[in-house]
Amino acid sequence: MAFQIKDLPFGKDALKGISEKTTEIHHDKLYAGYVNKRNEIAEALESADRSKANQAYSPFRALKLEETFAADGAILHEIYFDSLGGDGSLPDGAFKQKIVEDFGSWEKFVEDATATAMAARGWAVTAYDPSDGKIRNFLCDMHNQGGVWGSVPLWTIDCYEHAYFIDYGADRGAYIKAVFENVNWAAVAKRYDAASA
Length: 197
Known about the structure:
Blueprint: H1 20-46, H2 59-82, H3 94-103, H4 106-119, E1 123-129, E2 134-140, E3 152-158, H5 165-168, H6 172-181, H7 185-196
Antiparallel strand pairs: 1-2, 1-3
Helix pairs in contact: 1-2
């Protein structure tokens, strides 16, 4: 079954500080492109010549490398968009309690997530790490680099310039503040509840 492009859970003009034009290009062109490329790679792998697989170069190796890039590009964007459309209100419940436990306070979590997003070339990913039961902010320079095996992404900030350049130019910090103002923490908490169950 082919992977499907998921609809936005909010209107393209619904975000504060992130324009309709940015949302439209980001979702309808860039994210959709990753989903389409993921399908294209999956189809090509069905008939790829595995007998010539080689670590230096082979068409099969190239497809397998790009398979994770396209898949993670689609998945991280889906989490990004699914986590937007809220009003940024502080969450209550188990997720917030876990954040305070693991970071010391909600403010320290925000500080760490913001710093991770400022330092990342690609993504800041808040994830639940079952190897020690903690929530962590991971830095990913590319879709398929920086993740920790077994960790479950709960929330992402797309740090590539396409996510903010139309609205903020090179002011990534202002964009990150806008993301925080639009987070739907209930969606993030729901992913945490499922991951920690």
